[in-house]
Amino acid sequence: MLVTLIPFFDEEMSVRAYSLFAQKTNYLLDPSMQGTRQYDGATQIPGLEIIENMGLDTLSADKEVFVEVNNISVFSDISGQCQAPHDRIVLLIDSTVVPEKMYIDRLCELKEMGYKLAMRKLAVRNFEVYRGILTLCDYILLDHKNIDISKAKIYFTNIYPRIRLCAGNIETQEAFEKLKTDGGYQFYEGKFYRVPVNKGDTEVSPLKVNYIELLNMVNASDFELSKAADVIGQDTALVISLLKIVNRMSRNSEITSIRHAAAMLGQRELKKWINTAVANQLYADKPNEITRLSLLRAKFAENVAPLFEMNMQASELFLMGLFSVLDLILNKSMEEALQMVKVSKEISLALIDGKGDFATVLDFILQYESANWQEVSRVMLVKNIEMDKVYDAYVQSLKWYRDLFV
Predict the structure, then answer these.
(1) Which residues does the UniProt record annotate as the domain HDOD (predicted)?
(2) What are phi and psi of 165, to 5 degrees?
(3) Which CATH number is correct for 2-194, 1.10.287.600, 3.30.43.10, 3.20.20.450, 3.40.50.300?
(4) pTM for the full model?
(5) Does position 163 have pLDDT exceeding 80, yes or no?
(6) Are strands 15-23 and 2-9 parallel, antiparallel or unpaired?
Protein backbone atom coordinates (compact mmCIF):
# COMPACT_ATOMS: atom_id res chain seq x y z
CA MET A 1 0.00 0.00 0.00
CA LEU A 2 1.14 3.53 -0.83
CA VAL A 3 -0.65 6.57 0.53
CA THR A 4 -0.19 10.33 0.62
CA LEU A 5 -2.21 13.39 1.57
CA ILE A 6 -2.49 16.44 -0.69
CA PRO A 7 -3.83 19.65 0.90
CA PHE A 8 -6.60 21.97 -0.27
CA PHE A 9 -6.14 25.60 0.82
CA ASP A 10 -8.49 28.52 1.19
CA GLU A 11 -7.62 32.10 0.22
CA GLU A 12 -5.84 32.65 3.55
CA MET A 13 -3.57 29.67 2.88
CA SER A 14 -5.22 27.66 5.65
CA VAL A 15 -5.71 23.97 4.92
CA ARG A 16 -9.41 23.15 4.69
CA ALA A 17 -9.32 19.57 3.41
CA TYR A 18 -7.02 16.80 2.22
CA SER A 19 -7.21 14.57 -0.78
CA LEU A 20 -6.07 11.04 0.05
CA PHE A 21 -4.41 9.16 -2.80
CA ALA A 22 -3.51 5.51 -2.40
CA GLN A 23 -2.27 2.57 -4.45
CA LYS A 24 -2.34 -1.02 -3.25
CA THR A 25 -0.09 -2.66 -5.85
CA ASN A 26 3.30 -1.96 -7.39
CA TYR A 27 2.34 -2.49 -11.03
CA LEU A 28 6.00 -2.62 -12.08
CA LEU A 29 6.50 -5.66 -9.86
CA ASP A 30 3.27 -7.28 -11.04
CA PRO A 31 2.59 -6.16 -14.66
CA SER A 32 -0.41 -8.49 -14.91
CA MET A 33 -2.25 -6.08 -12.61
CA GLN A 34 -2.33 -3.60 -15.49
CA GLY A 35 -4.35 -6.07 -17.56
CA THR A 36 -7.51 -7.90 -16.62
CA ARG A 37 -6.27 -8.46 -13.06
CA GLN A 38 -6.40 -4.73 -12.36
CA TYR A 39 -10.01 -5.29 -11.28
CA ASP A 40 -9.04 -7.81 -8.59
CA GLY A 41 -10.35 -6.39 -5.33
CA ALA A 42 -11.71 -3.34 -7.15
CA THR A 43 -14.64 -3.06 -4.75
CA GLN A 44 -12.22 -2.33 -1.91
CA ILE A 45 -11.40 1.37 -1.57
CA PRO A 46 -7.79 1.81 -0.33
CA GLY A 47 -8.48 5.30 1.01
CA LEU A 48 -11.30 4.08 3.24
CA GLU A 49 -9.16 1.19 4.45
CA ILE A 50 -6.49 3.66 5.51
CA ILE A 51 -9.00 5.92 7.28
CA GLU A 52 -10.47 2.93 9.10
CA ASN A 53 -7.04 1.69 10.20
CA MET A 54 -5.53 5.03 11.16
CA GLY A 55 -8.48 7.18 12.14
CA LEU A 56 -9.44 10.55 10.68
CA ASP A 57 -7.70 12.48 13.46
CA THR A 58 -4.31 11.05 12.53
CA LEU A 59 -4.85 12.04 8.92
CA SER A 60 -6.58 15.38 9.05
CA ALA A 61 -7.86 16.41 12.49
CA ASP A 62 -11.30 17.97 11.88
CA LYS A 63 -11.04 18.43 8.11
CA GLU A 64 -12.78 16.69 5.24
CA VAL A 65 -10.92 13.98 3.37
CA PHE A 66 -11.42 13.40 -0.36
CA VAL A 67 -11.21 9.68 -1.20
CA GLU A 68 -10.95 8.26 -4.72
CA VAL A 69 -13.65 5.86 -5.88
CA ASN A 70 -13.93 4.35 -9.35
CA ASN A 71 -16.79 3.12 -11.50
CA ILE A 72 -16.69 -0.26 -9.72
CA SER A 73 -15.98 0.63 -6.10
CA VAL A 74 -18.74 3.25 -6.12
CA PHE A 75 -21.20 0.33 -5.88
CA SER A 76 -19.40 -1.31 -2.95
CA ASP A 77 -20.48 -1.29 0.70
CA ILE A 78 -18.77 2.01 1.38
CA SER A 79 -20.16 2.55 4.88
CA GLY A 80 -19.18 -1.01 5.78
CA GLN A 81 -15.57 -0.38 4.78
CA CYS A 82 -15.16 2.67 7.00
CA GLN A 83 -16.99 3.74 10.16
CA ALA A 84 -15.84 7.37 10.00
CA PRO A 85 -18.53 10.09 9.97
CA HIS A 86 -20.00 10.25 6.49
CA ASP A 87 -20.04 14.04 6.39
CA ARG A 88 -16.25 14.12 6.75
CA ILE A 89 -15.68 11.98 3.65
CA VAL A 90 -15.91 13.36 0.12
CA LEU A 91 -16.11 10.64 -2.52
CA LEU A 92 -13.93 11.72 -5.44
CA ILE A 93 -15.11 10.42 -8.82
CA ASP A 94 -13.96 10.99 -12.38
CA SER A 95 -15.35 10.53 -15.89
CA THR A 96 -15.23 6.72 -15.59
CA VAL A 97 -18.42 7.17 -13.58
CA VAL A 98 -20.68 7.92 -16.52
CA PRO A 99 -24.01 9.83 -16.50
CA GLU A 100 -26.22 6.76 -16.80
CA LYS A 101 -29.16 5.87 -14.61
CA MET A 102 -27.49 3.18 -12.53
CA TYR A 103 -24.63 5.53 -11.59
CA ILE A 104 -26.90 8.49 -10.92
CA ASP A 105 -29.16 6.34 -8.74
CA ARG A 106 -26.16 5.08 -6.80
CA LEU A 107 -24.78 8.58 -6.27
CA CYS A 108 -28.20 9.68 -5.01
CA GLU A 109 -28.10 6.83 -2.48
CA LEU A 110 -24.65 7.90 -1.28
CA LYS A 111 -25.82 11.49 -0.90
CA GLU A 112 -28.78 10.31 1.17
CA MET A 113 -26.30 8.44 3.39
CA GLY A 114 -24.55 11.72 4.13
CA TYR A 115 -21.50 11.44 1.86
CA LYS A 116 -20.36 14.39 -0.22
CA LEU A 117 -19.35 14.07 -3.87
CA ALA A 118 -16.60 15.65 -5.93
CA MET A 119 -15.82 15.38 -9.64
CA ARG A 120 -12.37 15.67 -11.20
CA LYS A 121 -10.74 15.18 -14.59
CA LEU A 122 -13.87 16.16 -16.47
CA ALA A 123 -13.18 17.44 -19.99
CA VAL A 124 -14.86 20.67 -21.03
CA ARG A 125 -16.70 18.87 -23.83
CA ASN A 126 -18.43 16.72 -21.21
CA PHE A 127 -19.71 19.51 -18.97
CA GLU A 128 -23.19 19.41 -20.49
CA VAL A 129 -23.26 15.63 -20.85
CA TYR A 130 -22.62 15.22 -17.12
CA ARG A 131 -25.46 17.42 -15.90
CA GLY A 132 -27.15 14.49 -14.17
CA ILE A 133 -24.04 13.85 -12.06
CA LEU A 134 -22.86 17.43 -11.60
CA THR A 135 -26.18 18.44 -10.03
CA LEU A 136 -25.35 15.96 -7.23
CA CYS A 137 -21.75 17.10 -6.71
CA ASP A 138 -20.64 19.28 -3.82
CA TYR A 139 -17.27 20.04 -5.41
CA ILE A 140 -15.78 20.28 -8.89
CA LEU A 141 -11.99 20.16 -9.32
CA LEU A 142 -10.89 22.36 -12.21
CA ASP A 143 -7.42 21.78 -13.64
CA HIS A 144 -5.75 25.18 -13.87
CA LYS A 145 -3.16 23.96 -16.40
CA ASN A 146 -5.34 22.01 -18.81
CA ILE A 147 -8.53 24.04 -19.19
CA ASP A 148 -9.55 27.69 -19.43
CA ILE A 149 -10.39 27.86 -15.76
CA SER A 150 -11.86 31.38 -15.87
CA LYS A 151 -14.49 30.30 -18.42
CA ALA A 152 -15.16 27.11 -16.47
CA LYS A 153 -15.71 29.19 -13.34
CA ILE A 154 -18.31 31.34 -15.13
CA TYR A 155 -20.07 28.22 -16.43
CA PHE A 156 -20.32 26.48 -13.06
CA THR A 157 -21.19 29.64 -11.17
CA ASN A 158 -24.15 30.23 -13.49
CA ILE A 159 -25.35 26.66 -14.03
CA TYR A 160 -24.48 25.09 -10.66
CA PRO A 161 -24.42 27.95 -8.11
CA ARG A 162 -24.32 25.54 -5.15
CA ILE A 163 -21.24 23.61 -6.29
CA ARG A 164 -17.93 24.58 -4.67
CA LEU A 165 -15.09 25.28 -7.08
CA CYS A 166 -11.59 23.92 -6.50
CA ALA A 167 -8.79 25.40 -8.60
CA GLY A 168 -6.29 22.58 -9.02
CA ASN A 169 -2.81 21.97 -10.40
CA ILE A 170 -1.59 25.47 -9.47
CA GLU A 171 2.19 25.56 -9.90
CA THR A 172 3.26 29.03 -8.75
CA GLN A 173 2.47 31.57 -6.06
CA GLU A 174 1.85 34.12 -8.80
CA ALA A 175 -0.85 31.90 -10.34
CA PHE A 176 -2.43 31.41 -6.91
CA GLU A 177 -2.49 35.17 -6.26
CA LYS A 178 -4.09 35.77 -9.66
CA LEU A 179 -6.82 33.18 -9.05
CA LYS A 180 -7.42 34.50 -5.57
CA THR A 181 -7.79 38.04 -6.90
CA ASP A 182 -10.26 36.87 -9.55
CA GLY A 183 -12.27 35.18 -6.78
CA GLY A 184 -14.98 32.54 -6.96
CA TYR A 185 -12.96 29.53 -5.82
CA GLN A 186 -13.37 27.87 -2.43
CA PHE A 187 -10.28 25.63 -2.54
CA TYR A 188 -6.86 25.83 -4.16
CA GLU A 189 -4.61 22.83 -4.82
CA GLY A 190 -1.17 22.37 -6.33
CA LYS A 191 2.52 22.64 -5.59
CA PHE A 192 2.40 26.46 -5.45
CA TYR A 193 2.74 26.50 -1.67
CA ARG A 194 6.02 24.58 -1.95
CA VAL A 195 7.55 26.99 -4.48
CA PRO A 196 9.43 30.04 -3.14
CA VAL A 197 8.53 33.51 -4.38
CA ASN A 198 11.49 35.40 -5.78
CA LYS A 199 11.44 38.59 -3.73
CA GLY A 200 15.10 39.47 -4.15
CA ASP A 201 17.27 40.13 -1.13
CA THR A 202 15.22 40.13 2.07
CA GLU A 203 16.21 40.62 5.67
CA VAL A 204 15.73 37.75 8.08
CA SER A 205 13.94 38.78 11.27
CA PRO A 206 16.08 38.88 14.46
CA LEU A 207 13.88 36.18 16.04
CA LYS A 208 14.54 33.82 13.15
CA VAL A 209 18.25 34.54 13.38
CA ASN A 210 18.15 33.45 17.04
CA TYR A 211 16.40 30.22 16.10
CA ILE A 212 18.96 29.53 13.40
CA GLU A 213 21.79 30.12 15.89
CA LEU A 214 20.20 27.58 18.23
CA LEU A 215 19.94 25.05 15.40
CA ASN A 216 23.58 25.61 14.54
CA MET A 217 24.56 25.18 18.18
CA VAL A 218 22.92 21.79 18.64
CA ASN A 219 23.93 20.47 15.22
CA ALA A 220 27.62 21.08 15.88
CA SER A 221 29.73 17.98 16.48
CA ASP A 222 29.45 18.57 20.22
CA PHE A 223 27.47 21.09 22.22
CA GLU A 224 26.90 21.99 25.85
CA LEU A 225 23.48 21.26 27.30
CA SER A 226 23.68 24.24 29.60
CA LYS A 227 24.29 26.72 26.78
CA ALA A 228 21.41 25.31 24.75
CA ALA A 229 19.17 25.44 27.84
CA ASP A 230 20.03 29.11 28.40
CA VAL A 231 19.05 30.00 24.83
CA ILE A 232 15.80 28.00 25.13
CA GLY A 233 15.01 29.89 28.33
CA GLN A 234 14.80 33.12 26.36
CA ASP A 235 11.79 31.93 24.34
CA THR A 236 8.53 31.21 26.15
CA ALA A 237 7.12 29.01 23.38
CA LEU A 238 10.20 26.80 23.41
CA VAL A 239 10.19 26.56 27.21
CA ILE A 240 6.56 25.42 27.24
CA SER A 241 7.24 22.87 24.49
CA LEU A 242 10.30 21.52 26.34
CA LEU A 243 8.46 21.16 29.64
CA LYS A 244 5.56 19.36 27.95
CA ILE A 245 7.82 16.74 26.38
CA VAL A 246 9.86 16.23 29.57
CA ASN A 247 6.70 15.85 31.64
CA ARG A 248 5.44 13.18 29.26
CA MET A 249 8.70 11.28 29.66
CA SER A 250 8.94 11.53 33.44
CA ARG A 251 5.66 12.34 35.16
CA ASN A 252 6.97 11.76 38.68
CA SER A 253 9.98 14.08 38.51
CA GLU A 254 9.81 17.70 39.60
CA ILE A 255 11.45 20.01 37.06
CA THR A 256 13.46 22.67 38.87
CA SER A 257 14.95 24.60 35.94
CA ILE A 258 15.32 24.72 32.16
CA ARG A 259 18.82 23.27 32.56
CA HIS A 260 17.34 20.44 34.62
CA ALA A 261 14.76 19.75 31.91
CA ALA A 262 17.46 19.75 29.24
CA ALA A 263 19.61 17.38 31.28
CA MET A 264 16.70 15.00 31.71
CA LEU A 265 16.33 14.76 27.95
CA GLY A 266 20.04 14.25 27.37
CA GLN A 267 22.13 15.55 24.50
CA ARG A 268 20.80 13.23 21.80
CA GLU A 269 17.10 13.69 22.59
CA LEU A 270 17.50 17.41 23.21
CA LYS A 271 19.09 17.80 19.78
CA LYS A 272 16.20 15.94 18.12
CA TRP A 273 13.61 17.93 20.03
CA ILE A 274 15.24 21.29 19.27
CA ASN A 275 15.40 20.49 15.55
CA THR A 276 11.65 19.90 15.48
CA ALA A 277 10.49 22.48 18.03
CA VAL A 278 12.64 25.27 16.62
CA ALA A 279 11.51 24.46 13.09
CA ASN A 280 7.91 24.83 14.28
CA GLN A 281 8.68 28.29 15.68
CA LEU A 282 10.87 29.26 12.75
CA TYR A 283 7.99 28.63 10.35
CA ALA A 284 5.35 30.30 12.55
CA ASP A 285 4.67 33.13 10.09
CA LYS A 286 4.10 30.70 7.22
CA PRO A 287 1.08 28.53 6.40
CA ASN A 288 0.72 25.63 8.84
CA GLU A 289 1.10 23.20 5.95
CA ILE A 290 4.71 24.35 5.45
CA THR A 291 5.55 23.30 9.01
CA ARG A 292 3.74 20.03 8.51
CA LEU A 293 5.48 19.44 5.19
CA SER A 294 8.92 20.10 6.66
CA LEU A 295 8.42 17.86 9.69
CA LEU A 296 6.81 15.03 7.72
CA ARG A 297 9.63 15.10 5.16
CA ALA A 298 12.15 15.01 8.01
CA LYS A 299 10.60 12.04 9.78
CA PHE A 300 9.80 10.19 6.55
CA ALA A 301 13.42 10.61 5.41
CA GLU A 302 14.64 9.28 8.74
CA ASN A 303 12.23 6.34 8.57
CA VAL A 304 13.16 5.28 5.02
CA ALA A 305 16.90 5.55 5.69
CA PRO A 306 17.26 1.79 6.35
CA LEU A 307 15.35 1.02 3.13
CA PHE A 308 17.99 2.93 1.18
CA GLU A 309 20.77 1.24 3.19
CA MET A 310 21.56 4.57 4.86
CA ASN A 311 20.67 3.76 8.45
CA MET A 312 23.84 5.41 9.76
CA GLN A 313 22.83 8.67 8.06
CA ALA A 314 19.26 8.71 9.42
CA SER A 315 19.78 11.81 11.57
CA GLU A 316 21.30 13.70 8.65
CA LEU A 317 18.42 12.68 6.41
CA PHE A 318 16.07 14.02 9.08
CA LEU A 319 17.81 17.41 8.85
CA MET A 320 17.71 17.30 5.06
CA GLY A 321 13.93 16.91 5.14
CA LEU A 322 13.60 19.57 7.83
CA PHE A 323 15.57 22.12 5.83
CA SER A 324 14.06 21.22 2.45
CA VAL A 325 11.73 24.22 2.75
CA LEU A 326 14.25 26.62 4.30
CA ASP A 327 14.20 28.75 1.14
CA LEU A 328 10.46 29.23 1.62
CA ILE A 329 10.90 30.19 5.27
CA LEU A 330 13.68 32.71 4.77
CA ASN A 331 12.51 34.00 1.37
CA LYS A 332 15.93 33.34 -0.07
CA SER A 333 17.44 30.95 -2.57
CA MET A 334 18.30 27.56 -1.09
CA GLU A 335 22.00 28.32 -1.52
CA GLU A 336 21.68 31.57 0.46
CA ALA A 337 19.46 29.94 3.10
CA LEU A 338 21.88 27.08 3.71
CA GLN A 339 24.72 29.53 4.21
CA MET A 340 22.95 30.51 7.43
CA VAL A 341 22.78 27.00 8.87
CA LYS A 342 25.45 24.41 9.46
CA VAL A 343 24.69 21.31 7.42
CA SER A 344 26.83 18.58 5.97
CA LYS A 345 28.10 18.65 2.40
CA GLU A 346 25.77 15.76 1.58
CA ILE A 347 22.70 17.74 2.70
CA SER A 348 23.84 20.85 0.87
CA LEU A 349 24.57 18.91 -2.31
CA ALA A 350 21.11 17.33 -2.25
CA LEU A 351 19.15 20.51 -1.51
CA ILE A 352 21.04 22.86 -3.81
CA ASP A 353 22.21 20.70 -6.69
CA GLY A 354 19.95 17.65 -6.43
CA LYS A 355 22.97 15.37 -6.46
CA GLY A 356 24.39 12.61 -4.29
CA ASP A 357 22.88 9.72 -2.35
CA PHE A 358 20.79 12.04 -0.18
CA ALA A 359 19.21 13.52 -3.32
CA THR A 360 17.92 10.07 -4.23
CA VAL A 361 16.03 9.89 -0.95
CA LEU A 362 14.80 13.49 -1.27
CA ASP A 363 13.48 12.94 -4.79
CA PHE A 364 11.74 9.75 -3.65
CA ILE A 365 10.00 11.71 -0.90
CA LEU A 366 8.97 14.50 -3.29
CA GLN A 367 7.55 11.99 -5.77
CA TYR A 368 5.76 10.20 -2.95
CA GLU A 369 4.07 13.30 -1.53
CA SER A 370 2.88 14.20 -5.06
CA ALA A 371 1.37 10.70 -5.49
CA ASN A 372 3.58 10.01 -8.51
CA TRP A 373 3.19 6.29 -7.94
CA GLN A 374 4.83 5.23 -11.20
CA GLU A 375 8.14 6.86 -10.27
CA VAL A 376 7.84 5.70 -6.65
CA SER A 377 7.26 2.15 -7.89
CA ARG A 378 10.26 2.39 -10.22
CA VAL A 379 12.57 3.39 -7.38
CA MET A 380 11.22 0.62 -5.15
CA LEU A 381 11.88 -1.87 -7.93
CA VAL A 382 15.44 -0.63 -8.57
CA LYS A 383 16.29 -0.47 -4.87
CA ASN A 384 14.46 -3.71 -4.03
CA ILE A 385 12.31 -1.91 -1.45
CA GLU A 386 9.12 -3.51 -0.18
CA MET A 387 5.96 -1.43 -0.57
CA ASP A 388 4.65 -2.26 2.90
CA LYS A 389 7.84 -0.91 4.50
CA VAL A 390 7.44 2.40 2.68
CA TYR A 391 3.81 2.56 3.76
CA ASP A 392 4.77 1.86 7.38
CA ALA A 393 7.46 4.55 7.22
CA TYR A 394 4.92 7.13 6.02
CA VAL A 395 2.20 6.12 8.48
CA GLN A 396 4.66 6.30 11.38
CA SER A 397 5.62 9.78 10.20
CA LEU A 398 1.97 10.87 10.30
CA LYS A 399 1.53 9.44 13.80
CA TRP A 400 4.75 11.06 14.98
CA TYR A 401 3.60 14.44 13.66
CA ARG A 402 0.21 14.04 15.34
CA ASP A 403 1.85 13.22 18.68
CA LEU A 404 4.12 16.28 18.49
CA PHE A 405 1.16 18.53 19.15
CA VAL A 406 -0.81 16.44 21.63
Answers:
(1) 204-389
(2) -95, 130
(3) 3.20.20.450
(4) 0.81
(5) yes
(6) antiparallel
From the list 117, 112, 26, the residue with the least C-alpha distance to 66 is 117
Instruction: For residue range 26-47, list pLDDT tens digits in order.
Output: 656 555 445 444 444 467 898 8
CATH 3.20.20.450 range(s) for the chain read 2-194
φ and ψ at 339, to 5 degrees? -70, -20
3-state secondary structure string, the chain? CEEEEEEEECCCCCEEEEEEEEECCCCCCCHHHHCHHHHCCCCCCHHHHHHHHHCHHHHHCCCEEEEECCCCHHHCCHHHHCCCCHHHEEEEECCCCCCCHHHHHHHHHHHHCCCEEEECCCCHHHCCCCHHHHCCCCEEEEECCCCCHHHHHHHHHHHCCCCEEEEECCCCHHHHHHHHHHCCCCEECCHHHHCCCCCCCCCCCHHHHHHHHHHHHHCCCCCCHHHHHHHHCCCHHHHHHHHHHHHHHCCCCCCCCHHHHHHHHHHHHHHHHHHHHHHHHHCCCCCHHHHHHHHHHHHHHHHHHHHHCCHHHHHHHHHHHHHHHHHHHHCCCHHHHHCCCCCCHHHHHHHHHCCCHHHHHHHHHHHHHCCCHHHHHHHHHHHCCCHHHHHHHHHHHHHHHHHHCC
Model pLDDT, residue 38: 47
CB-based contact 267:225 (threshold 8 Å) = yes
Q: Stretch 291-318: mean pLDDT, rounded?
A: 93
Q: Helices 288-304 and 258-282 meet at what angle, rounded to 10?
A: 110
Give the lowest-confidence range in 58-67, 118-127, 344-353. 58-67
Residue-wise pLDDT for 148-158, tens only, equals: 999 999 999 99
Ranges 56-65, 254-263, 277-286, most confident: 56-65
- Alpha carbon 336 to chain centroid, angstroms: 25
What pLDDT score does 37 carry?
42
